[in-house]
Amino acid sequence: MTLSEKINNDLKEAMKSKDNFKLGVVRMIKGAMQTFKPNPREELTDDDIIKIISRQIKMRKEAIVQFENAGREDLVSQNKREIEILNSYMPEELSIEGLNKIIDRVFDNLKPTGIKDFGMVMKEISPMVQGKVDMSLVTKIIKEKLSIWYVF
Fold it and tell me: Which residues, including other chains, have CB under 8 Å from residue 122's CB and lie 6 or more apart?
């Protein structure tokens, strides 16, 4: 079953069970999917849908920070519930050890010489870990390795 089919099935189930909150989140995903694809006849791949959902999760995490600063706990909890539903469509999270193995393998292949090679490294790693781990964590680890790796 493709991710698109799973989303459509969950939409139907949410309607049947009258789960208005989940229904709203799934409809939001469907709307973002329609906005993402320029040609309505083309089907989105699972990777495209994962990118869309990743963006939605990122937006909600940023909103949570703003709502916490504003003291809006009701909106914080709502966004956290939305993230839980969105995460159900994401692939299994990659462990830190697995992420470090991927990064080390890319470093061995590319042999970066310093922080100036960050873009090259990130371009190689991004497709491998997209949707499986928070990209800000990937950025942090790569920058640390680039600054430590070639200090000597």
Answer: 138, 139, 142
Structure tokens at 76: 């914080």
Instruction: Give the CB-side neighbour count of residue 9, counting CA atoms within 13 A.
Output: 7
Q: Which residue has the tokens 């964590």?
A: 137
Rounded-to-integer distance, Cα 152 and Cα 141, Å: 19
DSSP character at residue 133: S
Q: How far apart are CA 10 and CA 1, in angstroms?
A: 12
**DSSP element (H, E) containing 66:** helix 46-70
Range of lowest pLDDT (26-30, 56-60, 68-72, 144-148)? 144-148
Q: What is the pLDDT of residues 57-105, one digit of tens each?
A: 999 999 999 999 999 999 999 999 999 999 999 888 888 888 889 988 9
The type of residue at 70 is: A
pTM of the model: 0.72
CA dihedral 72, 75, 76, 82 (to 10 degrees): 180
Angstrom distance (rounded) from CA 45 to CA 48: 5
